[in-house]
């Protein structure tokens, strides 16, 4: 039995990213195992975010993104460049800081996701 709204398509990530407003929330392309698969383009971002319902996959296509993940063992820092793929483990606070304009593919379940502009989001106010 075929699904009524089943869409089977290829997506041109660079073309989609080029058409996005850098002040928007990105564009969802599809779903995958209860996660949103989408493209985002931005030059600023809230200081911290976390996704308690799933891991988050990030793949940078254009620009560079400094990323800090607050792991149980301490902060982990890296720079994601075009072609980089990284999976942020479920529930961990992470800070994606773009170096100028960044375009990326993301995949996560955003149920219960949180953002924070505190210096350390793990501490109570």
Task: Tell me about this structure.
The protein has 125 residues and is mainly β. It has a single domain (25-115), classed as Jelly Rolls, CATH 2.60.120. 5% of the residues lie in helices and 46% in strands. It has 1 helix and 10 strands. The protein has one helix at 13-18; strands spanning 27-32, 35-42, 48-50, 56-62, 65-71, 74-80, 85-88, 94-98, 102-108, 114-116. The protein has a 5-stranded antiparallel beta sheet with strand order 1-2-9-4-7. A 3-stranded antiparallel beta sheet has the order 6-5-8, with no helix packed on it. A two-stranded antiparallel sheet has the order 3-10. A hairpin with a 2-residue loop joins strand 1 and strand 2 (35-42). The radius of gyration is 15 Å and the shape is globular. The N and C termini lie far apart (52 Å).
> In terms of per-residue confidence, which ranges show pLDDT below 50 for 5 or more consecutive residues?
none
Domain module tally: 1
Name of the CATH class: Mainly Beta
**Total number of beta strands:** 10
Number of helices: 1
Short descriptors:
125 residues, mainly beta, Jelly Rolls, 3-stranded antiparallel β-sheet, 10 strands, 5% helix
Strand and helix map with partners:
Blueprint: H1 13-18, E1 27-32, E2 35-42, E3 48-50, E4 56-62, E5 65-71, E6 74-80, E7 85-88, E8 94-98, E9 102-108, E10 114-116
Describe the structure concisely:
The chain is mainly beta and 125 residues long. The protein is 5% helix and 46% strand. It has one domain: Sandwich (Jelly Rolls).
